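Prolyl 4-hydroxylase alpha subunit domain-containing protein: structure tokens wanted.
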Amino acid sequence: MIPYLIALIPFLFIFGNPILDFLSGSSSCQVPKIHRIPKPKLNTDLLALKDDDKTYQCERDGYKIHVYSREPLVIYFEGFLSEEERDHLLKISEPLYEPSTITHNGGKEVNRDTSVRDSEVAVVPRDDVVKCIEDRARSVQGWREEVWIERLRVQRYGVGGHYSHHYDWSSAMGGWGRVSSFMVWVDDAKGELEGGGTEFSKLPGKNGKWCKFLDCESQGNGTVFKVAPGNAVYWENFRSDGTGRGYEETWHAGLPVKKGKKIGLNIWSWGRMD
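Answer:
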């Protein structure tokens, strides 16, 4: 018996505190918190700041929502854009397209690499219709403090067009970054589009009724949202535990277009991580 007691002493010495913490409901392990820097100066050329002197009128929102995931928060919207809004976006973006680029090092480095991202982008002007879409996206954020909608960007993908897997939060620093994202589908070449879905390879897939919105046949172990004009998917990029950690499940890609043309709308929210 004595040898067993002697052998138990170093075990208690090493693991005694964690065991007591567990039994008492407390923990001495603290998750590192964000080292927060003061709010950076806002770049008004990139942000769609709220119009306090509102002179435009918006139709009542008519979308329907489905909660796909709670951790991370992923919401699917039916009817996020009306047909008139989609037509308007197609019209105003047509003369503005430029080759899409990739940013690195917190936005300090910008280059074009079609092996990673092959598409065209148009930063659309903020007319009344666009401001109504901005307001709709802003309202989804609730009353979060210090969060702003970025300028809306329409993306066009031809055959072979794609965007390889990436995180929207990759350039975050000092407690500030892209806190949430929308992928909104604007057009699918009148139903002739093949491919081009939005894949979340680390987000567990679903079946059943969700196959109305998902490519259940090819999504494998992840999730692939089908292109559906007018609909959208929204997700939160950061955990709300004060650590500033991003959700690994938001690793996503725009899959290659096999036939036709895909046009989507990116809506990003930039601001303070909760």
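The domain at 47-272 is CATH 2.60.120.620 (Jelly Rolls). The chain is about 15% helix and 30% strand.

Cheers.
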